[in-house]
């Protein structure tokens, strides 16, 4: 990955591309959830505060809220996930992205965990 | 096996010679009715053969925790099928329904005595609907008192229905963790109590199969806070005649008649989830109520505080008949049921606790939870599947959520020592297999009509119905 | 009766193995201890029990019913009960262990298919409690789908269904309103309605869809579906109803059978259990419960419904009923019900009753009696007939099914002639 990636405590990742924040869930999170069978995406134009639930991911045995890691407005969603929820399992950082938001406070990005900090954080959970 | 829709066209017996023409305009009638015509003998064979692919209490041991899969006495089926019960229209006049009303009224009296509650409604169709009614009552009760209470306390070991029910009534759920003895954490409970808490929902014994040791204190604390105590009575099979939820301090309880009172589970229902309340909540129960006046039974529709109706007519009457028969069979000896449910559970636990891990080292009530975590990920699932090869229904697995690789075992009182010994032997053998030859367990079952099914494709590419070929 | 197999010898060995002296030692922490004997009747033998229950059941009076109003007295083929009574069906629970529940699961799949074929919808669930609570679940689904909280109910909804709906709406902070506008979550219509009327509901579907609301059709007498246009063809997004007419006895009001079917776009929102077809690890066809992540045991406070135990065996009863009747049998039931009701209405009009249905009807209709309806029903009662539901102002709601023979209809009418 070329862009800088940051993580939330709820295992969402964010990269900033052309001023927009692309959001997904981490490889660790998809492994925890297991085989994902459906995704409920947010509506374009909906606004979230940082760490408000924005989407729901269902696997065979679990249902999990996805929190919006940065405050802002949803400008694009990955509609391909509706047909191919398994992309989150197969490619959590590429094909399996969930939404793009227009962040209202970019400082929030700076306060999120770096890749190293997140790996450390996940190591402790394990 | 083919679907009923895949039989070739046959002649059927349900035809009339009467020639009736339908005088309805075209815009109201259908052009075609795409149903199959299959002869009676083929229908009988089809469903008889399907039944052979099923497992039930009549076929073998079914220790499915939290579901109380006890023997369902056959006499209760005969009673429920009596012409006078079965063919009675629910909107008949009161002079024509005295037998059914008497049965319902008497069942209410028995349930009041068993639970220590003051009034019962037999209307809820299942436990989850009983819970819903309970929280609806709480909501109306606080509204009429002009109190804004928008939250419900639920322990982390609770059945999923509890938080789902709270959400249906727009209550916010506050989850309280369990302590190291498996009770609700008393300190955390105290900290969470405030004037926003409408109801505390507890299952007792809880879903770990443990009696809440602080139940009296929890009820006192809640009541001093103006909060109602709701008992999820799913585990009543541990308590009959031994202790009463009403005496413990609960204000409401639902009972699953298909659990403690032996009505058959029917492959997923119907059940009955009757709700009992203390007298200060009686007027909130759904209408109509049944009252006895001068040796006549009549409907009372006069209670203005009532929350309303939650289903048509008066409840799953046929299940009420079966439960009433069961209670009358046991009569005043019914304590023996719970004594033996607790005995069987503790006996089985004593045979298994050396081999599997026991997360809370206490005597259990009518069921218990062990963990197979030491055998690795998915071991509870694999053990469950392996049990199928030995002719047992597996325990409830992965519940309660707070125990990793949980196996929740409820033997019930109707199982013999011989069955329990055999089940324990098999579970010990599977533990041995897991150590020596785990792939045998991980690949199970081998002897069932189908092997492990692909649930992932079922969910991702849903095929939920047959459709006529185009 | 005693249903416990444990002998005293067993009991002693078990207590010893546990390491306690008595059962009382096992329950001593269950507090507060209940110290007296429960005040319940003396235990009964099987013989005593059946005698007692026969006595109770005979206190009920069974009549010839010309009454429906949400509970329909259709003929149930003998084979239905014989199959239902098989312990393999009746003594299992929810088919979580698919490998040993293929019978129940395939029957669920067939039930879902029958409901879809009859309603003209895409997907059905495996049952809800009854028609009235199913309608309430439809409203919760609708509000969770479009996040609106106003509900519009067309006239003619069964009054008990309306009562139940009101109770659920109060709990869920939903409001029953008289307008259809951009706050409306769904528009509800019963067809045939409580008074028996049938109409083309297209116009109502259009009004609902125009403001972005869902259109819900409620079917209380489902044998009507054999001849009437499918609710899906009226533009329904959700169809709910009561399946009791399909092989389930009237049984003093329960257990009955709620059903729900929806359009594909609502698939992930449908409450309750859903069975799907898949394959096993050897490629054989098989069935499993699917989309369980919607349900309360996984989604907990985020589930749309709390339903768990449903009406499984009742769904099986109607599946078997529909299989036995088939296309021809169900058509016969519907035609006879329609024909008998129209015959009776014609004869009553001839006897001076006023027909009040302004629209076509199926097997229920409303008349105004020329004499006191109380007097009429009590004269009918003396002849063993329950002549309908009194609606006030001498109005009566009357129903016929294939069980009301031409002879019954004649004796109904002749009693009327005798009332002074």
Question: What does the model show?
Answer:
Chain A has one domain (5-121): RNA polymerase II/Efflux pump adaptor protein, barrel-sandwich hybrid domain (OB fold (Dihydrolipoamide Acetyltransferase, E2P)), CATH 2.40.50.100. Chain A is 25% helix and 36% strand. Chain A has helices at 27-33, 80-83, 86-90, 107-110, 115-125; strands at residues 5-7, 12-17, 20-25, 36-40, 47-48, 53-59, 63-67, 72-77, 99-103. In chain A, a hairpin with a 3-residue loop joins strand 6 and strand 7 (63-67). The mean pLDDT of chain A is 90. The model of chain B has no long low-confidence stretch (mean pLDDT 96). Chain C has two domains: 64-72 and 328-418, Aspartate Aminotransferase, domain 1 (Alpha-Beta Complex); 78-319, Type I PLP-dependent aspartate aminotransferase-like (Major domain) (Aspartate Aminotransferase, domain 2). Chain C starts with 7 loop residues before the first helix and ends with a helix. The relative contact order of chain C is 0.14. In chain C, helix 4 runs antiparallel to helix 11 and helix 7 (131-146) packs across helix 8 (159-171). Chains in contact: A-B, A-C, B-C. Chains B and C meet through helix 1, helix 2, helix 3, helix 4 and helix 5 of B and helix 1, helix 2, helix 3, helix 4 and helix 5 of C.
Q: What's this model, at a glance?
A:
Chain A is of the alpha+beta class and 126 residues long.
**Unreliable runs of chain C:** none
Average pLDDT level of chain C? 95
The percent of residues in helical segments of chain C reads 25-40%
CATH superfamily of the largest domain in chain C, by name, is Type I PLP-dependent aspartate aminotransferase-like (Major domain)
In DSSP terms (H or I, runs of 4 or more residues), the helix count of chain C works out at 13
Proportion of residues in helical segments of chain A: 10-25%
Spell the H/E element sequence of chain C.
Answer: HHHEHHHEHEHEEHEEEEEHHEEHEEEH
Overall tally of structural domains of chain A: 1
What value does the Rg of chain C take, in angstroms? 25 Å
User: CATH architecture of chain A, please?
Assistant: Beta Barrel
Please describe the biggest sheet of chain C, giving its number of strands, its sense, and whether it closes into a barrel: 7 strands, mixed
Overall outline of chain C: globular
The DSSP helix count of chain A reads 5
The first-to-last residue Cα distance of chain A is 24 Å
What is the CA–CA distance across the termini of chain C?
Answer: 55 Å
What characteristic shape of chain A results from the CA principal axes? Answer: globular
Query: Which two protein chains have the largest interface (Cβ within 8 Å of the partner's Cβ), and how many residues from each?
Result: B-C, 195 and 190 residues
Give the CATH class of chain A: Mainly Beta
């Amino acid at each position: 990955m070329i862009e800088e990636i940051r993580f939330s405590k709820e295992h969402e990742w964010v990269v900033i591309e052309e001023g927009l924040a692309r959001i997904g869930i981490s490889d660790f999170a998809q492994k925890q959830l297991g085989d994902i069978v459906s995704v409920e995406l947010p509506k374009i134009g909906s606004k979230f505060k940082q760490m408000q639930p924005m989407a729901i991911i269902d696997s065979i045995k679990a249902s999990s809220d996805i929190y919006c890691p940065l405050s802002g407005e949803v400008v694009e969603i990955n509609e391909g996930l509706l047909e191919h929820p398994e992309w989150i399992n197969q490619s959590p950082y590429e094909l399996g992205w969930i939404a793009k938001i227009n962040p209202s406070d970019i400082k929030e990005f700076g306060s999120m965990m770096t890749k190293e900090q997140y790996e450390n954080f996940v190591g402790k959970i394990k | 096996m083919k679907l009923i829709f895949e039989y070739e066209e046959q002649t059927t017996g349900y035809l009339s010679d009467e020639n009736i023409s339908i005088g309805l305009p075209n815009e109201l009638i259908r052009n075609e009715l795409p149903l199959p015509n299959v002869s009676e003998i083929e229908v009988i064979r089809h469903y008889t053969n399907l039944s052979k692919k099923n497992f039930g209490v009549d076929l073998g041991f079914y220790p499915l925790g939290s579901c109380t899969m006890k023997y369902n006495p056959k006499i209760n089926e005969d009673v429920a099928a009596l012409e006078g019960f079965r063919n009675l229209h629910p909107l008949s006049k009161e002079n024509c329904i005295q037998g059914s009303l008497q049965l319902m009224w008497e069942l209410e009296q028995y349930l009041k005595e068993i639970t220590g509650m003051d009034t019962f409604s037999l209307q809820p169709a299942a436990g989850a609907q009983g819970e819903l009614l309970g929280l609806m009552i709480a909501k109306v009760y606080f509204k009429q008192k002009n109190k804004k209470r928008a939250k419900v306390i639920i322990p982390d070991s609770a059945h999923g229905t509890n938080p789902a029910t709270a959400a249906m009534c727009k209550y916010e759920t506050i989850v309280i963790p369990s302590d190291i003895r498996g009770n609700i954490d008393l300190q955390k409970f105290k900290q969470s109590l405030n004037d926003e808490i409408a109801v505390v929902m507890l299952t007792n014994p809880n879903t770990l199969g443990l009696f809440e040791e602080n139940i009296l204190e929890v009820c006192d604390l809640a009541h001093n806070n103006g909060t109602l105590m709701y008992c999820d009575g799913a585990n009543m099979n541990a308590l009959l005649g031994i202790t009463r939820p009403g005496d413990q301090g609960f204000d409401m309880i639902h009972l699953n008649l298909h659990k403690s009172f032996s009505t058959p589970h029917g492959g997923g229902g119907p059940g009955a989830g009757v709700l009992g309340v203390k007298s200060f909540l009686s007027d909130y129960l759904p209408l109509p109520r049944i009252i006895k006046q001068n040796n006549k039974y009549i409907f009372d529709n006069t209670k203005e505080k009532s929350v309303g109706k939650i289903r048509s007519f008066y409840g799953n009457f046929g299940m009420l008949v079966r439960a009433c028969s069961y209670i009358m069979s046991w009569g005043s000896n019914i304590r023996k049921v719970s004594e033996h449910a607790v005995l069987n559970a503790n006996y089985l636990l004593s045979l298994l606790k050396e081999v599997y891990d026991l997360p809370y080292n206490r005597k259990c009530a009518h069921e218990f939870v062990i963990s197979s975590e030491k055998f690795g990920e998915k071991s509870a699932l694999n053990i469950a599947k392996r049990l199928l090869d030995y002719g047992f229904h597996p325990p409830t697995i992965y519940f309660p959520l707070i125990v990793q690789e949980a196996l929740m075992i409820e033997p019930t009182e109707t199982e013999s020592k011989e069955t329990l010994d055999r089940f324990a032997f098999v579970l010990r053998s599977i533990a041995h297999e897991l150590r020596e030859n785990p792939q045998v367990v991980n690949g199970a079952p081998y002897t069932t009509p189908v092997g492990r099914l692909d649930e992932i494709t079922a969910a991702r590419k849903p095929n939920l119905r047959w459709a006529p070929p185009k | 009766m005693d249903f416990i197999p444990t002998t005293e010898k067993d009991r002693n060995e078990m207590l010893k193995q546990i390491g306690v002296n008595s059962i009382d030692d096992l329950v001593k922490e269950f507090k507060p201890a209940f110290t007296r004997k429960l005040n319940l009747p003396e235990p009964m033998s099987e013989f005593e029990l059946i005698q007692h229950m026969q006595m109770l059941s005979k206190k009920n009076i069974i009549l010839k019913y010309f009454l429906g109003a949400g509970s329909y007295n259709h003929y149930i083929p003998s084979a239905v009960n014989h199959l239902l009574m098989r312990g393999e069906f009746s003594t299992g629970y929810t088919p979580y262990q698919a490998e040993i529940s293929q019978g129940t699961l395939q029957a669920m799949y067939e039930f879902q298919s029958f409901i879809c074929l009859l309603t003209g919808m895409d997907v059905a669930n495996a049952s809800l409690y009854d028609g009235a609570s199913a309608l309430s679940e439809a409203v919760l689904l609708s509000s969770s789908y479009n996040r609106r909280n106003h509900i519009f109910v067309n006239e003619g909804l069964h009054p008990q269904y309306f009562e139940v709906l009101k109770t659920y709406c109060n709990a869920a902070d939903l409001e029953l309103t008289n307008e259809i506008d951009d706050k409306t979550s769904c528009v509800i219509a019963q067809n045939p309605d409580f008074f028996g009327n049938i109409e083309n509901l297209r116009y109502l579907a259009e009004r609902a869809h125009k403001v972005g609301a869902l259109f819900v059709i409620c079917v209380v007498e489902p044998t009507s579906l054999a001849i009437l246009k499918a609710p899906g063809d009226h533009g329904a997004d959700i169809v709910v109803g009561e399946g009791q007419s399909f092989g389930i006895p009237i049984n003093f009001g329960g257990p009955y059978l709620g059903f729900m079917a929806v359009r594909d776009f609502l698939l992930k929102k449908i409450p309750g259990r859903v069975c799907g077809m898949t394959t096993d690890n050897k490629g054989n066809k098989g069935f499993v419960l699917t989309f369980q992540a919607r349900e309360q045991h996984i989604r907990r406070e985020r589930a749309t419904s709390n339903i768990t135990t449903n009406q499984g065996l009742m769904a099986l009863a109607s599946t078997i009923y529909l299989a036995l009747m088939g296309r021809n049998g169900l058509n016969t039931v519907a035609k006879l019900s329609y024909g008998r009701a129209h015959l009776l209405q014609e004869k009553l009009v001839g006897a001076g009753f006023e027909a009040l249905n302004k629209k076509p009807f199926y097997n229920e209709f409303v008349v105004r009696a020329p004499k006191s309806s109380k007097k009429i029903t009590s004269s009918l009662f003396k002849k063993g007939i329950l002549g309908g539901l009194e609606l006030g102002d001498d109005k009566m709601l009357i129903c016929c099914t294939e069980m009301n023979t031409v002879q019954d209809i004649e004796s109904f009418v002749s009693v009327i002639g005798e009332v002074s």
